[in-house]
Amino acid sequence: MSLRIALLGLLSGVGPASGYDLAKKFEHSLNHVWQAGHTQIYPELVKMAADGLVSAESEGPRGRKLYTITPAGAQELHTWLVEHPPVATVRNEVALQAFLLPLLGKDDAIAAVERIRDGYQARLAVLECLTEPGFGKYARALGLRQVRSGIEWADETLADLKRD
Amino acid sequence: MSLRIALLGLLSGVGPASGYDLAKKFEHSLNHVWQAGHTQIYPELVKMAADGLVSAESEGPRGRKLYTITPAGAQELHTWLVEHPPVATVRNEVALQAFLLPLLGKDDAIAAVERIRDGYQARLAVLECLTEPGFGKYARALGLRQVRSGIEWADETLADLKRD
DNA sequence: CGGTACATGTAAAAGGTTACATGATTTC
DNA sequence: GAAATCATGTAACCTTTTACATGTACCG
């Protein structure tokens, strides 16, 4: 479901696009929010067209197919955005590592948290460089807050681990 | 892979347990970190036993099977904890909603953010009640920080939306 | 004319969800 | 003896990843 919503959202926000374009968007602007490769996107667009949520326009230069969101697609997107309950289906590898940290000895634990911190730092750098005009700015703000709180957690945890 | 690690971690942390026990752990202590139902856990334990990572002990009261982590399982767990790179495979419905917020009108957007805020608030309440002795405390601290930063984002975003 | 970026797809496997199915023990 | 909880499983389906496969247009 969420993949459909992401695709409908992109089509609604940036206008008609090809599967290739949409895959690029996932790689760049959407990568801190949702992920999908072209092998997932192409078949999904075909299904969405069959369901009347998008229409496949004419073929361009290299067999390029332009997809446009339909009124039914816009309706589906709007309904989801307004009604979808905030399900907290968390599946977070970093949190799992944090959970299992007490199983490690002091030195291993410190090394593990330092690697987690480096990961957050790298994501912070990416988010800071991201200058999206309007579209996506709220997600960027949320991402920045989450990543910064991750770094704070790492620092707190490192201090805690080094104290003993 | 991560499901295996979570199961090995639980077996390592709390000692021998049945699939049923492990499913309960996922429901309670592990639910803000990783999720899995019994239909995923039971077959995985069988595979892990086949791979020599756990050993299935005798059958108890109601066909209950006790699984114990083996040295090979402990090795696999340790290696993952120490070496697994912090992959940031984000797939976050709330962030997706945040991303697509500019597609909504002012009133719809405000309502959407308020629902997101309520969701974070509910998770905060759950995390605050969680009093885990040692095991899981770092994950709880991380979760608290992430949820609190989510609430801060919601407040900031609501102020921004209401300003216009 | 060779390399890069554009552009699309399929198939197999792995991971995860939902629905169905069964039976034993305990508690009231 | 009825209900709740314990305890395990299978099957169908959906989602996601990885590997394979193909061909076109543009740029130097």
Automatic annotation (TrEMBL), chains A, B:
Domain Transcription regulator PadR N-terminal positions: 7-78
Species whose genome carries this gene: Nonomuraea zeae
Domain Transcription regulator PadR C-terminal residue range list: 90-161
A family per Pfam: Vir_act_alpha_C
Protein known as: PadR family transcriptional regulator
Superkingdom of origin organism: Bacteria
InterPro entries: Tscrpt_reg_PadR_C, Tscrpt_reg_PadR_N, WH-like_DNA-bd_sf, WH_DNA-bd_sf
